[in-house]
Amino acid sequence: MTDIVRADGRATDQLREITIERGWSANAEGSALISFGGTKVLCTASFTNGVPRWLTGKGKGWVTAEYAMLPRATNSRNDRESVKGRIGGRTHEISRLIGRALRAVVDTKALGENTIVIDCDVLQADGGTRTAAITGAYVALADAIEWGREKKFIGKNATPLLDSVAAISVGIIDGTPMLDLPYVEDVRAETDMNIVVTGRGLFVEVQGTAEGAPFDKRELDALLELGLAGCETLKGHQLEALAPSEAQA
Amino acid sequence: MTDIVRADGRATDQLREITIERGWSANAEGSALISFGGTKVLCTASFTNGVPRWLTGKGKGWVTAEYAMLPRATNSRNDRESVKGRIGGRTHEISRLIGRALRAVVDTKALGENTIVIDCDVLQADGGTRTAAITGAYVALADAIEWGREKKFIGKNATPLLDSVAAISVGIIDGTPMLDLPYVEDVRAETDMNIVVTGRGLFVEVQGTAEGAPFDKRELDALLELGLAGCETLKGHQLEALAPSEAQA
Amino acid sequence: MTDIVRADGRATDQLREITIERGWSANAEGSALISFGGTKVLCTASFTNGVPRWLTGKGKGWVTAEYAMLPRATNSRNDRESVKGRIGGRTHEISRLIGRALRAVVDTKALGENTIVIDCDVLQADGGTRTAAITGAYVALADAIEWGREKKFIGKNATPLLDSVAAISVGIIDGTPMLDLPYVEDVRAETDMNIVVTGRGLFVEVQGTAEGAPFDKRELDALLELGLAGCETLKGHQLEALAPSEAQA
Amino acid sequence: MTDIVRADGRATDQLREITIERGWSANAEGSALISFGGTKVLCTASFTNGVPRWLTGKGKGWVTAEYAMLPRATNSRNDRESVKGRIGGRTHEISRLIGRALRAVVDTKALGENTIVIDCDVLQADGGTRTAAITGAYVALADAIEWGREKKFIGKNATPLLDSVAAISVGIIDGTPMLDLPYVEDVRAETDMNIVVTGRGLFVEVQGTAEGAPFDKRELDALLELGLAGCETLKGHQLEALAPSEAQA
Amino acid sequence: MTDIVRADGRATDQLREITIERGWSANAEGSALISFGGTKVLCTASFTNGVPRWLTGKGKGWVTAEYAMLPRATNSRNDRESVKGRIGGRTHEISRLIGRALRAVVDTKALGENTIVIDCDVLQADGGTRTAAITGAYVALADAIEWGREKKFIGKNATPLLDSVAAISVGIIDGTPMLDLPYVEDVRAETDMNIVVTGRGLFVEVQGTAEGAPFDKRELDALLELGLAGCETLKGHQLEALAPSEAQA
Amino acid sequence: MTDIVRADGRATDQLREITIERGWSANAEGSALISFGGTKVLCTASFTNGVPRWLTGKGKGWVTAEYAMLPRATNSRNDRESVKGRIGGRTHEISRLIGRALRAVVDTKALGENTIVIDCDVLQADGGTRTAAITGAYVALADAIEWGREKKFIGKNATPLLDSVAAISVGIIDGTPMLDLPYVEDVRAETDMNIVVTGRGLFVEVQGTAEGAPFDKRELDALLELGLAGCETLKGHQLEALAPSEAQA
């Protein structure tokens, strides 16, 4: 893309090191400890037969997500939201985003009257926590659906998963579009965008914000292109993690 | 755009009836009662000399926003968030969006150590409440800044407002991109997008979500084009409302 | 009463300008935007077929009210109670007062197992917000009951409304009893009283408080006389607003 | 007044048995365990040198009150407000009433920059808890002021207490005005009134509510007369409790 | 034990003056006002036929407890937990301790599907409030069970109470083990222990904490011996309070 | 001890597999991911120069702890305490226990006016989470103190750590005392005890509870002996983790 080399030595269109430890949790029906460089998120999927009261009897399932950060995931400690007694706006917003991203690739009719709650807890934060969370959550979700099928809560021929889904951050720094921003880049970005993309390369969510100067259509297009390529790479990591040879505990 | 005529008789690229009652509130330093068709939002701007503790001594001002809905703004009554004792995720998310949108056109150095809080209270809701809120909030903000200048809290030659800002919703319904969705269209939209645009036509925020099927780049482009045109029209309404002849107490 | 002329030019026994915009809200089953001078309260009535669990099966309906103030209704901004996470004592107290006032003129047996919630949101405050709220709430209530009758939730011959109800503030300022106090008078009043009176001129509620010196029986009698006359005038405004010629959506 | 004899054998204008145990608490600067028949309220006064921040430097003191009920004070158990995480409307309303009643007889300038918090905790409830609380709170307040004088926080010649204050409930039952209602009468009362009266016989607060049929001026006058006489008797009990021979712990 | 005489004149192995006023509350099914010297706790037992939802249909009853302190029970006033909107860690911890202590002597099958809630409210605090609460709670519990038997909610031959239970604090002060610490000793104790013991002399709970230097096995043994003897004496007070001649209101 | 072999093959006096990953977190001043078999707790220590306001100017530091569990750490998902808006009694109780345990081995004068907050977040739970938390917290604390010394916030010759500290659970199952109970044993234990022991083998905390039948002195002694030996072994693991060869970033 450009000859610019970033502080961590990456090219502008290069992801950080991505690792996915599938089945990290012995207790959850699906789980993954995902890292995007220094960002580490534990994603667990909890499968329950049945749906919330408001959905009962409609023959549909429900998928939702909750995002949170450990108090010392970041460089300086933040008070716990449980201690403050209320959840902050940012936490709410990201939880809602993750839930929408996952529901976009789930056929809730095929899921049947089952509920899957995905918890994404950031153990260590270095930028891009919401995109790592979505990417890891998909892996946990896929395993939880498989679990439900084995337990016969989901029909043998039902295919609740319509596609895979991944997410990445992109941003403009000193005029240059860059992929997968760590914290030091994130705070300097003029424009910050998170995109959520399906395995087939379609958009589920596009959220771009001018942190500094407003941006134009040309910049928007450059960011989208970078992000689509990044999500394609993430899809590869997800497929590899979910490959049968790495069978889960 | 197309020959499709909507339930309310509008063309696909046509805004609903827009009205802005500038100076609706006798008490606030700036205010506007804005309506986008059946959506009515009261925007008030409260100017305070001084800034929050964490910003003290940096020679910068602060602009923030709070969004809320009256319990019976909608078709059926919702419990008050004050009664529930907590603010919902949607409320938080929209409040944060409005604040970011306004700050994008404010030079906080030029504002000086002053704080402006914009309250956007939805009195009646029929889709697009966040976009009406941003569009009306700009009018209230402009008047509050003018008030601060008259009271000498802001320097005579300072220009805290860098540009105007407006917002509109767009969506794809039955495959057709449409502008400014009322509630009945909003619930049917496959893709729903809110865009925030400056007076110069640059993006401040682009938030697109696939409510149904994921969308591709071509659809995204069509929505952005529609939205840019809509915001250009809204800018006209804002300018008219703020024109000196309609000067207010 | 006396020759004293008040700051706003009124006689001591004169109400401020009263306006009632019946049917202000397109969504509620009954509504009124009422103003007592600079005090503006939006009253909406939400009709629901059915009653709370604790009242089920007793053949009776339920009427309740919630009062709140927009953050910038007053001269300086107050934090939202939803943000503080708790409702203040004053808000609770006024909500309870409005509910009692309305229930005093409702035959809950005739209402049948239906619930009406009246929301009174102060859009602009200049003293007497609770009395304006009660007076406007009656209009919204009357329309909601009419709506329930049209929808056959209330029997054709049932008469749930036993009487009308209105409320006004009175106070002693510099030794002189005065009617309908705006904010500037309210803060100076030695004694402050709110009275709630039915259309037939009977008391529903009498709440008098010595803000300065305690008061004697003679002063109490003077205040009650003023208030009764004021409520009689308010009844006229309510009847006019509810007159068939001003038929509502 | 009438020949009617009540369930507990009292005449219509007779108080229940009143006892005041002054100095019940070894820790508080002033305290009283007061009973009106089966209603028992522990009132403690906490004296602090200094005032809340908002009052600092004005040379004035502050008196405030908090009312609460033990969970099993009543016939069936109520959940604790601490467990529910919020204070109910009734609790707030009564706390505010007690505070106003006490401040009406305090010269805050003479009190100096000192704060007195009165806690009124209902240990057993049988109607009239707020009136017992006010009556007992006065005794605790008087002792706390005396304590402040001894500790030289209050000037030797200052007289912060302008008068005494007491309160009683009155109501109309089966058409008959009655004094000091126990729970069984309270629930049957058509009109319920609490009055707060100074030692000199002036009104501090008059709160009358039609629980059943609205009431007229004649009934109101009868209730006020009954209540004034009852408060005069309560004043005697207060004076006796505070008499020097009953010196406090 | 030693020749040491304490500030209040007691021997190191001597309890403070213990009084138990059984049946203090006219409303509760069982109650006791217990005092350990200056510590006074009102214990009330509320009997309800039926159990919480999660226990329904298992043929077992439920016993639970809530502990709280009046704001001015202590030497300086503490804010109410209801006002703070949350219950503190200490309150939670003691409530749970009391509940466990009581359940240890209850046969929930014999209790049948009935619930007993014990409220322990500290009216005055001078150390050892949790141990006084447990000791008094047993008396209230015993009477509530007797009430349930009389009302036929509990079978005639069922014996839900397996044993009695009492509790006492012990501690090491200046190297000397002492029984039943008042506040002045409690704050100086190097090691602080609360023990809960059944009538048969078996341990239900042992909670020892090194407030200063850690302690060894020999010191632990000395404290346990002291505490066992103290609980034996408390059992005598409980039996005396519950003796038939002191029949309850 | 006995010939009994447990479900997981251990002897009754044998710990589960213990691992301590020192320095797991890149951001905290000290950290350890500790596991006791299937129980995994992430302990991070946050060092701040300065102390809370109430301790300012006393020349002493402060050490405190917060414990929490991820929602799906356990076999079935628990609602987040941040979502419930309040911290449960168990969480409070364990946080307080960990804080006391650590403070028992810290000389706060030697620590100087510095604050260390230890967060113990249970990532996976299989019994004994509080004891694993204390044991791991000590390692994080030791590294944070070393960090403070390197940054010169702590004097070169100061020795804030007086000793090490570890904790273990013991219990009686089917009459047999056993060490380090996993979840399946914990729920079956008649008596459950947690003990906290310093490196020198002294008790900091002893908390024994009869979950089933009350226990006698002989059983208590057997449990204490088992626990002391277990803590001695844990000390070995702590020393090994902190050995210089495993030096940390």
General description of the model:
The structure is a homohexamer of 249-residue chains. Chain A has 249 residues and is α+β, with helices and mostly antiparallel strands. In chain A, 30% of the residues lie in helices and 29% in strands. The first copy, chain A, contains six helices and nine strands, in the order ββββαααβαββαββα. Chain A has helices at 81-84, 89-103, 108-111, 129-150, 183-186, 217-242; strands at 18-22, 30-36, 39-49, 62-69, 114-124, 165-173, 176-179, 191-198, 203-210. The longest helix of chain A has 26 residues, at 217-242. Chain A is globular and about 55 Å long. The model of chain A has no long low-confidence stretch (mean pLDDT 94). Chains in contact: A-B, A-F, B-C, C-D, D-E, E-F. The A-F interface holds A 25-28, 31, 38, 42, 44, 46, 48, 66, 68, 70-77, 80-87, 91, 117, 119, 121, 123-125 and F 25-28, 31, 38, 42, 44, 46, 48, 66, 68, 70-77, 80-87, 91, 117, 119, 121, 123-126. Chains A, B, C, D, E, F: Its EC number is 2.7.7.56. Chains A, B, C, D, E, F: It holds the Pfam family RNase_PH_C. Chains A, B, C, D, E, F: It catalyses: tRNA(n+1) + phosphate = tRNA(n) + a ribonucleoside 5'-diphosphate.
